[in-house]
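Q&A log
Question type: sequence-to-structure
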Amino acid sequence: MLTNIGIPGLILVLVIALIIFGPSKLPEIGRAFGTTLKEFKSATNDLVNGNDKEKDEGQKLKAVDKDRQHTGS
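Response status: OK
Response body:
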């Protein structure tokens, strides 16, 4: 759906945004959008790679339990 926008459509959207929000608000909106996108990508990466972290933490906990059993604590 978004692949059919093209350069003229993108320019039209930017001009309409400039008319609606004005030149003073546009940088703030862009910054907020960028921050939101960055947080979304970070959360997505955490979800995708979270299984690896959970496995590593589980292995560390097992190693700590084994050490405790050997030392008698």
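Response note: The chain has a mean pLDDT of 80.
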